[in-house]
Amino acid sequence: YPRLRTKETRLSEFNQTKAMLGSYTKVLFVRDPFHRLIATFLQGMGISSSFSSFIQEVLDSGVHNGSVAWEPLVSLCRPCLIQYDYVVMFGFLGQELGHLLRRAGLPGGSLLPELTDSQVQWTYRWLSEQMFSELSAQQKKQLSHFYRWDLAAFPFSSSFLSD
């Protein structure tokens, strides 16, 4: 449905039946919410000049009035309503994508770019430390509350927000 595919279209906006959803293999790719915020900020999607002011912009927008780039995954993807066949966490793509391709009957290794998950994880750990230190205690608390359902639904055990 090309006319429905826009940059801001949410899964919940599609009028799909359970039978139709049941006929597809459903894959959900998830990422630590704090890493999503860092990526969004670095891509210049916020109008703020500092990370702290960008975070305040996110918090001020609220859960349902903000951008898809930082809206909680639970709101976007409805994991409580849709039974996903696979949940793949960012940072484990190299391990998981080959498995998914083989399950789909495709050659697992030949279609994948080389993924260096350990380097990505180390870089985001370093960035997280730097950017988390820019935030006030109040902003940290508000962010943890903002993403509380994502943190409860997915195992982001090393997230700065779950501390």
| Overall average residue pLDDT | 79
**Sheet of most strands:** 2 strands, parallel
The figure for the number of domains is 1
Q: Helicity range of the residues? A: 40-55%
Q: Termini separation (Å)?
A: 42 Å
Structure class: mainly alpha
Secondary-structure element string: HEHHHEHHHH
Keywords: Carbohydrate metabolism, Glycoprotein, Golgi apparatus, Membrane, Signal-anchor, Transferase, Transmembrane, Transmembrane helix
Membrane topology: Single-pass type II membrane protein
Pfam families: Sulfotransfer_2
Protein name: Carbohydrate sulfotransferase
Features:
mainly alpha; single chain; globular; two-stranded parallel ribbon; 163 residues
Describe the 3D structure.
This protein is mainly alpha-helical. The chain has one domain. It contains 8 helices and 2 strands; from the N terminus they run αβαααβαααα. It has a two-stranded parallel ribbon with strand order 1-2. α3 (51-61) packs across α7. GO terms for molecular function: sulfotransferase activity.
Summarize the entry for a quick read:
By secondary structure, the protein is mostly helical. It is built from 8 helices and 2 strands. The N terminus is likely disordered.
Please outline the helices and strands.
Elements: H1 18-22, E1 27-30, H2 33-42, H3 51-61, H4 73-77, E2 86-89, H5 93-103, H6 117-132, H7 137-146, H8 148-153
Parallel strand pairs: 1-2
Helix pairs in contact: 3-7
